[in-house]
Amino acid sequence: MTAVFVSVLNLAINAGWVALAIMGLRLLLKLPCFRRFPRWCVCLLWAVVGLRLVCPFTPETHFSLLPSGETVPLTVVTDPTPAIRSGVSSINAAVNPILAERFAATPQYSANPIQILLAVLSYAWLCGIAVMLLYLCISTLLLYHRVRFATRTPDDSRVFECESVQSPFVLGIIRPRIYLPYNMEAETRADVLAHEYAHLARRDHIVKPAAFLLLTVYWFQPLLWAAYFLLCRDIEAACDERAAKRFSDAERRRYAASLVRCSVSAKTHAAISACPLTFGENDVKTRVKSVLSYRKPTVWIIAAAVVLCAVFAMCFGTDPVEKTASGNTDPVSSLSAHYKAAELVLANGMFSFVQTAEAAPGYSVDSDGVLWEIRTDSETGAETAVRLGTLTECAPTTAETHFPDSAVLISGTGEDVRTLLSGTEHVLETVYDDPALDLIQRYTLFAKEDGTVYLLYSHKSADREDFIVRWMYRLTEVAET
């Protein structure tokens, strides 16, 4: 269950980025120069959010604008030092130290703290789904109970009239019906039916319940709540546009007046917002303005809108293949190799014992971004691989906090360590709690633009707040043994 929740969490995070992008585009489309932009295209953009939520696997492209395809790695449950990979260095640098400090594995316990937390969150997530489904079922049953005595109109078998209905709406998925209040004026009735027929033609009676079901699963993501309500507004705007394009200016003014007359109160709207498509939704003021100012878009505008949707789907419907400046893949993949210490370039003068490059263990970074230390027994020569933890990217500026004045270079030109690390492109780090030495050890990899890799080792005891730098190696890549 925890693995399922982590997967759902990653899908929700990625969909949240897409929703933010659409919200930004919606603000841009409010400018006067985009007044003729067709509103049905905005609804197509929301479909990208839905695809991100239902597709567990998405292709990777170099066009993706998402910062990360998997923010919370599936190995976070078993990793001694849990960390996220948001794709944004500032976020990683802010969150990962907190996760390492509060949720690092403790040898004397059988379960990691992050494992317990995710298990609790998983059950809370299931409880939230149950509450949302219960609300959906109850609100739908109450609405069907309200219209149980509705009568079919003689002119259309899909249209019903009901005394308990205050505003027109569409209800139903397989056999959708249009419900109207009794004694509706002929002109208003014509405007309402034009709008509701537009809903049926666009299959909105299927889209809106499907969107609510997705919201039921991803109820913990606040951006998706905002996306759902904005989708409902965009659906109504698209139907207004579909109906208005067949009207004359006088008929559009009449349609706008019908919108005002049929608007429902906020209380009624909240009670039925989960299921039907209501003619008098909220945000009537904006809809009236849009109807009155409607102008038919040209072929070029429609073509530009289609291209925009295609480009948006390419940029936000795919996962990123992150690149470095040198053209390599993401930093974890580019560092996936076996290394040995080629040179000791820094040592802390506070300590008499300094590890030499010849006696240093080997290191390895696997394809999952896990750093391993290859220790060799001095007597038998047997090699043992120790899992140090998953490397997570930090902000390059974080490196400056690692070096006290007592840490000096002991080889090379003797230049300052910050000068040596100038041109650092990526900083990756993991923390390992060594039960044998009763030390918390930090391993930091500095990957420079020219391909040089440095490994910094520091540690602290449990009663200390700051790490103490011990030494730093320049690593060289070796063949797997």
Written overview of the protein:
By secondary structure, this protein is an alpha+beta fold. It has two domains: 2-316, no CATH class; 331-478, Lipocalin, CATH 2.40.128. 42% of the residues lie in helices and 20% in strands. The protein has 13 helices and 17 strands. Strands 8, 9, 10, 11, 12, 13, 14, 15, 16 and 17 form a ten-stranded antiparallel β-sheet that branches. It is elongated, with a radius of gyration of 30 Å. The chain starts with a helix and ends with a strand. 32% of the residues are buried. Residues 265-272 and 323-328 have low confidence and may be disordered.
Q: Compute the number of strand runs.
A: 17
Q: Tally the helices: what do you get?
A: 13
Rg:
30 Å
Strand content: 15-25%
The end-to-end distance, rounded to whole angstroms, is 38 Å
Helix content: 40-55%
Count up the domains.
2
Main sheet? Answer: 10 strands, antiparallel
| H/E series | HHEHHEEEEHHHHHEHHEHEEEEEEHEEEE
Structure class: alpha+beta
Apparent shape: elongated
Poorly predicted sequence stretches spanning 5 or more consecutive residues: 265-272, 323-328
The overall pLDDT, averaged over residues, is: 81
